[in-house]
Amino acid sequence: MKPLLLQLQAFGPFAATESIDFTALGNNPLFLINGPTGAGKSTLLDAICFALYGQTTGGEREPSQMRCDVAEPSVLTEVRLDFSLGTKQYRIRRVPQQDKPKTRGEGSTAHSPEAQLWELDGSEKGILLVARKVNDATGQIKELIGLDVEQFRQVMVLPQGKFRELLLADSSDREKIFSQLFQTQIYKRIEDFLKSKASGIKQDVERHQSEIRGILQVAELNSEAEIVEALNQLQPALAEAQQNRVAAQADKKASEQAQEKAQRLIQRFAVLGEKQGLLALKQAAAAAIDNSQKDLDRATNADAVKPLFDNARLASNVLAKIESQLGESSAQVAQAQQRLATSDQALELAREAATILTAHNKREVELQHLQQQSHELSSAQTTLAEADAASLSVVAQLENMRQQLLMLSTERERGEFAVEVLSRELEGVAEQQILLDRLTTQLGLRRELEVSRVQQREKLAGEGTSRHAYQASADAFKSTETAAKKTELSWHAGQAALLARELQHGESCPVCGSREHPQPAAPDSELVDKTEVDQSRVLLGLAREAMELDRQRWDQAINARELISAQCLRLARVLGPLAEAPLLLLQENQAECAAALASLLAKHDKRHQLQQRLELIKPEYAVLADELEAHNRQLVSRNEDVVRVRTEVDRLTAVLPKDLREPGAISQSIDELRARIERLTVRLAAAEQGHIDARSNSDKSSSRHQALEQQHYEQQQLMAECSSIWRASLESSLFTTEQDFHQALLEQQQQQILQADINSYHSELNALKGVVEQIQAEVAGAAQPDMAAIDKVLAAQIARLNTADSVWQTLEQRHQQLAGIVDKLDCAHRENQALETQYGVIGTLSEVANGQTGNKISLQRFVLSVLLDDVLIQASQRLNVMSKGRYRLLRKEDRAKGNKASGLELEVEDSYSGKTRPVATLSGGESFLAALALALGLSDVVQSYAGGIKLDTLFIDEGFGSLDSESLDLALRTLIDLQASGRTIGIISHVSELKEQMALRVDVIGERQGSRIAIVGC
What's the CATH number where 146 sits? Predict the structure, then answer.
């Protein structure tokens, strides 16, 4: 990010609009921001950070606090920044929250914060990316620059007093910054993916272990060995039951086949009768089908010659159309020739009128000379009128002043009398005011009492509603509780019945251990599932919560009603007898009292005004007397001016002709003459253009008419040829006349329908014949079967099969249950083994990638540690120069204590002692040099990686004051080298040596009415 233009308005100490054009400082400048303390040097960095992120660089002041105190109230506080990112340029404007004067009336109103973001594409306005929303603009800036505000402060701006933050950041904070700068989030996503994958596999292992335990519980056995033993005992009985079932199925199948054969034979006899009837009906419709075939054949022959008929008819229609167009063209040719003759006459007349233009031009010059003399006369007449008016005005003023002196004297006498009368009437104003205040208070209390009574009635109704709601929810809870208990008892009874179903004489009961089972439990009805029990418990909990909620609402309604009742009693005691007085009566008393007080106050104001007027009359009378004397002297001077101007008017009037002396007469004559000249010119041009247009239209009409005559002749030949071919084809066809041809024509859809009906008839007829012959062959020599005897044999076989199948299904279900459990157990063991093998790989990778083994270094932190090493190599080179070969930055490779993240901490190597120590042990000046070197090294490495963030700007706020002169020279030399590599570097400092060494400066000049900015050295 590189700033191009910064504009501030009413921001910080800058009251007006100030701007810095960074492009005027040159390409990749190194400049000093200079100025006294408090002038606003750091505010420039605050403005850049606020424009981008809506926050200041230090983060200690809110944007709403950046309003300039000495700015005009109507000036809006705002910051605008133009900046570049690579080859693209952007503009952002921000306005913080502030108070501004109301457009109407007094006071102020709050102005909400806003932000706009544009992409500058070379057009006047650019492409608007964000219209107003502050959060949207901040999100876009983060996406464009690739840094949030904290990261921006640490790598692109070193604020005053905070340059040590990046230097002293721990591994976690430095990991966030570096991952954003170097775009290494993919490694973090790998860590999260492996962690999530390992967690999922571990959960699957635990779930399979639970499934194995659940499978054994379903079989009602304790171990896998018991399942194998039960399968071996069940095998002989199952084989015998299978043999009995197969034999019964074979007998039943033979009976079913005999039944099906008899039913098919009966069905074939029925179908034979039906098909013979349909065949007779089809044969009766043969005559109608023959007629349809004849119509179809005639339509086919008509379709063969129809194109020739269509060609003849089309040629006739086209010939008629051309004849119509030929008639219209003849009329147009005649009309065009007539217009051409008319335009020739008009052109001749216009050329004759053009000879008058020369005489009109000479007359225009004469009138312009006379107009100049007329202007001089008008000016003299105006001066004379003004002089006469001034004299009359002075006379009128003299008379007016005499009248004013008389009126002032009379007004003073009347005013003194009126003041005495009003003073006597203005007694009792204070008593009337006290009475009005007491009535107003009583009326307010009475209204409040009325509102409280209405609220009391509403709360009483709400209390009844809440009580009914609580009673209903309590009843619902009791019924839900009863149903839940019943469901749970039914479930326990069902579980007992399931256990009893598997009990065998001589085997121990899983509940009591007894080998005798005199009264095993039996299910009374359909078994209740555990899910129903859980649902009933959930419903019971919901009903209990609803009952408690309604109880709370009832209590709240009672408390609210009691509070309002207490308020009503308090107001009634305060008002006393007025508690039941009508509101209208109190309002009338208040209005009467207020009207009386207003009348007295109006008289008081009138008396005060009269007294003020009496005080003004005395000096006003003296001033009028002095002005009267001055106007008498002025009147004499005005009369002398009138005589001099009237002489000049008479001289100019004699020069002008009488018919041109009227005001505007010469101008009107000039305008009329110019209008005639313009009309003649326009008329000549129009006549010439009209003659050209008429000639063109005449030529076009003649050409078109000749083309139409040629088309008419050719179409007549074509029509004769088409008609001859049609007549010849009609004579050679099956049709005797053209009418016979038209009657034979059928639409294509009608022909298709006829053909479909004919084909369908023949197809159905042949099909019916074939079916009848086939069925007759099948039933030849057969008799009707005895279905009653056959059904009786089949019923006996079905009963035998059902008995055998019931025995087999009981044994088979148990066998399948046990075999399925064995398969499920084998499958569960295999899946569990596979999951454990998979977890051995994924889990190990997850632990290594997430830093849960060894030195507690995650995958992303490992990658960032390599990048940090590159940064420290670049930073150490600069720090080594600036510290005169003493210090070098290193990455701490020892593991941090406890579970704290490690791998990205920094140490400093001191060549004087030959040891490494924490960077926190550096002094203030040394820390500044180390932080500066780290920021510069980070900028170099980030820009060297493809796709990295552009760190081509650096602002440094103070820190140079902690350096000695030699270290200051070394730091400046480093910054100059960095500037040569394509960076923009701004320094804020009070150090006088910097001001002497850096000619390119941005001076911030502090003044009482607000700071201002000046660029020096450009």
Answer: 3.40.50.300
